[in-house]
Write a structure and sequence with these properties.
This protein has 236 residues and is α/β, with parallel strands linked by helices. The protein contains eight helices and eight strands. 36% of the residues lie in helices and 17% in strands.
Length: 236
Amino acid sequence: MLMEERLHDLQEKIAQAALRAGRDPGEITLCAATKTQSDDTIRAAIAAGLRVCGENRVQELCAHLEADAYAGAQQVHFIGHLQTNKVNKVVGRVELIHSVDSLHLLQAIDKQAAKLGIVQDILLQVNIGGEESKGGVAPEGLEALANEACAMEHVRLRGLMAIPPVAHEPGANTHYFVKMRQLFVDMRTKIAHNESSMDCLSMGMSGDYEDAIAQGATLVRVGTAVFGPRPAAGQV
């Protein structure tokens, strides 16, 4: 299937999932996960109509930016784990950082954004499945971290992100998405002074984005459904 066909098919499925949930398809942003993709593949996706690219790795982000591979996209997001010693390579170079999960990282982002004289949009990553192998703040620690973010001058909290456990059957992650939606609503209520900026709930990937949309996702991070099977490292 051609890139244009895959992208059109995915956008149609996203729209239908939104309509089934009684939602406006325009509320849902597709962020294509470009991990391990080549410059030319990213350019082809943008030419086919892709508007938001999401990069997992700092090294790949920097390489694609240097090659101007994201030209024509409306936004570039960083969606992978971010180490504090690489914050200076990401802050100010992407519109949204999805994976903020600690006060230490928040402070590093705020400090770098201050140096640049900007406000960096971020999401707080929640470890909704309680998995030791994944990043994210525990749900019970979310409010404190959100308040810290809202107190920072050079950070703007835009919402929440989660990567639930791998689902082995349809609907298996629905209860995690329900919990994330409730956390999102709760946070908007508890930090009402920042409510107007809290507009993004990033959850759902290639295998479960329709379930995520049904439960309130405003952004889905999809790779395989856009690009096909991911190439092995070194083959891009």
